[in-house]
Write a structure and sequence with these properties.
Helix 8 (about 135-150) runs antiparallel to helix 9 (about 155-165). Helix content is about 80%, strand content about 0%. It has helices at about 1-30, 30-40, 50-60, 65-80, 85-95, 100-110, 120-130, 135-150, 155-165, 170-180, 185-205, 210-230, 235-245, 250-265, 270-280, 290-300. By secondary structure, the chain is mostly helical. The protein folds into four domains: about 1-95; about 110-165, Serine Threonine Protein Phosphatase 5, Tetratricopeptide repeat (Alpha Horseshoe); about 170-230, no CATH class; about 235-300, no CATH class. The relative contact order is 0.05. The protein has 16 helices and no strands. The termini are far apart.
């Protein structure tokens, strides 16, 4: 009998998770039929917490925050261990600019939920502190989130933003180096970090010194080497390579990478957008007067 009850509970939990994921997907895609179907299936007594959660999530996406908060609190009253609802409540309070209440709610979740890791709660807590300009506390929370989930991209992004606010360039550089090691198989995220490093390198000399800026460019180069080795035909990595080569005065290499990048972009619309962007991108200033550059950006530009 006990075994049967455990099996029933397991099946119900699997159904609960499926309905939550289906409902969230339906809300994000604005699929009324999916939302209605999930709500209909959630009317069973043992799934009413899901019913309230889906209503809360829908109101949250629609920015109807007070009603979303009412529904999410109803979900938590029915099921105090519903992790999704705890996360959503924190997000709702942050978007309502109720930052102290959000931190209080997130702390409650951290203290009372039995989870493998609490990265999302620490990350959201960091966001709340950041919005209150409590940067040191925000950084602590983002680093704590990374401890729990070393591949939590949002915590890395948010932490870098806060370190930049503090002009804490050495720790910023160190965290970027960690990204290169941890995400070496995640080329998309590495390529995003390359852009951030190059943009940051541009502003540092005005505030600090050229030596730090060069270290940022050096790290961007290492990440580019990694990315281009993994995906040598990736148009967006090639675009960053063109920017890097331009910044480091490798003019022929920059032209070659830019041309190859545009050629490999997946649609004429995207090619047109990048040609237009190349005409104003500061990273490409060193090659803009080159006749080959003009040929690349003017091709099929109409």
């Amino acid at each position: 009998m006990v075994k049967n009850k455990k099996m029933i509970d397991l099946k119900r939990n699997e159904l609960r998770i499926k309905l939550i994921n289906d409902g969230a997907s339906g809300i994000e895609k604005k699929s009324k039929s999916t939302i209605d179907s999930v709500l209909q299936h959630s009317k069973e007594q043992y799934l009413l917490d899901v019913f309230e959660y889906i209503l809360a999530y829908k109101d949250f996406i629609d920015k109807n925050y007070p009603l979303a908060l009412t529904h999410v609190e109803a979900a938590l009253k029915l099921n105090p261990t519903l992790t999704y609802a705890h996360v959503l409540k924190g997000n709702i309070l942050i978007d309502m600019k109720e930052f102290e209440k959000a931190i209080e709610s997130l702390d409650y979740s951290i203290q009372n939920l039995m989870l493998i890791n609490y990265a999302i709660f620490f990350c959201n807590k960091g966001v709340a502190f950041d919005r209150m300009n409590r940067t040191d506390e925000a950084i602590f929370c983002f680093l704590r989130a990374i401890e729990d989930d070393i591949k939590d991209e949002n915590s890395y992004r948010n932490c870098l933003i806060c370190m930049a606010k503090k002009k804490d360039w050495l720790n910023y550089l160190s965290l970027s180096q960690n990204i290169r090691e941890v995400f070496k198989e995640n080329v998309k995220f590495i390529n995003e970090t390359i852009s951030v490093l190059m943009n940051t390198a541009e502003i540092i000399p005005k505030e600090e010194n050229l030596e730090i800026s060069e270290k940022f460019l050096e790290e961007a180069g290492k990440q580019l080497d990694l990315a281009i080795t993994k995906e040598p035909e990736n148009a967006y990595i090639l675009y960053n390579l063109a920017c890097f080569n331009s910044r480091t005065n490798k003019i022929p290499e920059a032209i070659e990478a830019l041309n190859k990048s545009i050629e490999k972009m997946e649609s004429e619309e995207i090619k047109k957008r990048y040609r237009e962007w190349a005409c104003i991108d500061k990273d490409l200033a060193n090659i803009r007067e080159n006749p080959q550059f003009k040929e690349i950006v003017l091709t099929n530009k109409n």
